[in-house]
Amino acid sequence: MSHPNQFNANSRHPSNGNLIPRSNRRSTETAYSSSASESAQSDSPARRNYEPGTGAHFMAQSGWSNRDQYGRPRQHSVAPVPTPSAVFPIFTPAPRQTHQQPIQQQRHVGSVPAQEEPHQITFSDGPNYKRIYLFALVLVSLMLLSLIVVLVVLLLTNVLVFVGFSSSSAPSSDRLATALPLPPSLPPLPIPMEQPHLVTRTFECELYVLDQANQAYSDPNSFEQFQAQSIVQNALLSVMEHSSLRDLSPNVIVERIENSGADLHVTFRLSIVILEQQNNAFQEQSVRNLLLSEAGLLEAYLNRTNVDRSRISVKRTN
After folding, report:
1. Are the beta carbons of 213 and 311 closer than 8 angstroms?
2. I need a surface site. Which of 106, 231, 233, 280 has the fewest CB within 10 A?
């Protein structure tokens, strides 16, 4: 006795207990699917009948049923068939080249024979090393030959001389004279110019400054004596630097100042450097004429004093 909810070998239905043959089960499923598709097509917006003049009729005529919610035409695409790479998103290695495929795959490549399969590795003919070596040998031989020729020419023209020295005896002077080239003759040394001979000329000069006597000048160690001597010496140096003697390195040294009645007697020494050939050009009269011509400038440096021009005297000491 069989239970009503169990299936037997003849595929009894659990609800009514009737037997359904297996051959009729597939036809029943096919009929059910076809009737479902027909009902779906009859209910599609394209097959519906709308009342003319309504908005639904206008939208059906305009093809709104074939547009999406944004008003763009629908794109009917076929669902992609899942591939192993899509189902399992794993890293797919780059396809192998023909020469990298396994031996089993190369044997089942079709009707293309193994001799005609393309191969990406090509071999070009290598360089001919024999010709390169031969060319290098010829080039080196020519260079050695040219070097030998140059050495022979230098030996024949006595440009290159080999001197052999014996360990027992020293070379003679004649052999050294013929073997070693003579040094080039040096140009004559320039004759040094004769340095000019300079001499120093010293003159002792005297002059009188009118109405400048002072009782303090009688003491040679007094401050007034030292101050008056400095003023006179600076005035004489300024006069000589602005005179024609400025290029002769003039030097003035005041030896003493003393009272001479109401006047001030000044004695100083003037030194100049001149050439020996100009020894006769500078005499006492030349220096006296210079002092007379510059007497006005000297009076200005001495605070507008007066110099007695008639009592200016010059004497050469060397």
Report:
1. no
2. 280
Per-residue pLDDT, 180:
58
Which sign does the torsion angle of CA 79, 83, 86, 87 carry?
A: positive
Query: Which pTM does this prediction carry?
Result: 0.40
Q: Is 296 within 8 Å of 286 (Cβ atoms)?
A: no
Summarised one tens digit per residue, pLDDT across range 115-172 is 445 555 555 556 688 899 999 999 999 999 999 999 998 888 887 776 655 544 555 5
Please give the Cα distance from 168 to 247 (Å, whole number).
Answer: 73
Which one is the CATH code of 198-316: 3.40.50.300, 3.30.420.40, 3.30.70.960, 3.40.50.970? 3.30.70.960
pLDDT of residue 240 exceeding 60: yes
Residues 316/284, Cβ–Cβ less than 8 Å:
yes
Q: Write the DSSP string, 119-165.
A: -S---PPPP-HHHHHHHHHHHHHHHHHHHHHHHHHHHHTTSS-----
To the nearest whole number, what is the mean pLDDT of the chain? 72
The DSSP annotation for 65-119 comes to GGB-TTSPBP---PPPPP-HHHHS--PPPPPPPGGGS-HHHHHTS-S--GGGS--
DSSP 230-251: HHHHHHHHHHHHTSTTGGG--E
Question: For residue 245, what are its two tokens?
Answer: 């003697």
Whole-angstrom Cα distance, residue 229 to residue 254?
A: 7
